[in-house]
Write a structure and sequence with these properties.
This protein is of the alpha/beta class. Helices cover 46% and strands 18% of the residues.
Length: 185
């Protein structure tokens, strides 16, 4: 796997990547994709990453609010579920709640679904993808998804274009903010 970072114009931007996963296998995929996003965006050290296991969110309301705030602030929100044998209803409900929290930037973010594997294709995929698309639209995020099968993470072409668009948006926003600050000064 070869990952080429974006050019210097997009480098230097702080990127927030937030992952929620259902199980150990899903966490491994989320970590791997997070690493690929960091490499694509360039300049390590300009990143804030968080990973939450879905089960933790049932602990109490304070933790749930913290999750929702941090997820809403993220530029990239990764949802990783290794099996679609059952509908991830509580995850969708949680993402619906996240859409009610105002994001830190006005920029469209990215919602990435890492879903099941090709071995467990089911009618649940259609249900899950449609719900994730709805969450992404309400949260002003672009949506992409990918299988989590054994060969799924050998190639990140499916990710490159979307991360590039996100980084270019962040760069434009930074330039506009700099111009406004210069005009005020």
């Amino acid at each position: 796997m070869i990952i080429t970072p974006f050019n210097e114009a997009t480098a230097g931007e702080t990127l927030r990547v937030f992952s929620v996963y259902a199980d150990f296998e899903a966490s491994r995929h989320a970590k791997y994709v997070t690493g690929a996003i960091i490499k694509l965006a360039g300049h390590p050290g300009q990143f804030v990453t968080e990973m939450w296991k879905l089960d933790v969110l049932t602990a109490n309301e304070t933790i749930k609010r913290m999750f929702m705030r941090d997820a809403a602030r993220a530029d990239v929100l990764i949802v990783s579920v290794s099996s679609l044998a059952q509908r991830p209803g509580e995850l969708i409900a949680l993402l619906d709640a996240v859409t009610t929290v105002k994001p830190a930037s006005g920029l469209p973010g990215l919602l990435i679904g890492l879903l099941g594997s090709e071995e467990n294709l089911s009618h649940e995929l259609d249900w899950t993808v449609k719900r994730l698309i709805g969450c992404a639209q309400r949260a002003n995020r672009d949506f992409i998804w990918h299988w989590m099968g054994p060969e799924a993470l050998n190639d990140f072409d499916w990710l490159t274009e979307n991360v590039g668009m996100l980084m270019r948006r962040k760069c434009v926003q930074r330039e506009q903010t700099s111009l406004k600050e210069a005009a005020v000064a």
